[in-house]
Design brief:
Blueprint (H helix, E strand, L loop, with lengths): L1 H26 L5 H37 L1
Amino acid sequence: MAEATAKKKSGNRIAKFFKEVKSELKKVVWPSKKQVSKNTLIVIAAVLIIGVVIWALDLIFSWGLGTFIK
């Protein structure tokens, strides 16, 4: 009997959780397709710029360390 009560309480908690998730998702303001594409391009550009900076610093430090060791 106690097991049935525990399962029922657990089932109620799970159902309540998903109801709350559904209600929260209704409150979300989804971005437009234009905003998503613009933000995607900004992220790609930032990643490329940071990648180039790290690559350049790696070249400089490698050259400096090579010069120092020789």
